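Q: Here's a chain of 73 amino acids. Please give me its 3D structure as tokens.
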Amino acid sequence: MNFKQATDALLKSVTLEDLAAEMGASVQAVRQARAQQGSSGFRRPPLGWEIAAAKLARQRAMTLGKLADRLGG
């Protein structure tokens, strides 16, 4: 693994698209749920958002752990 590959993996983040797909919702629904509560654009988060977010967080943590192991950390 070279520097570019390692830093690409390190800097990759979970996107709104990833979260929307995991929740079975649209990207727009995720954006609206992230809006300031009380604003005209705010909508309630999709049901099951906590489970979806936790799953993505665990996947990301596992990926970063494997990267650290590979880099000798």
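Q: Can you summarize the key feature?
A: DSSP finds four helices and no strands in the chain.
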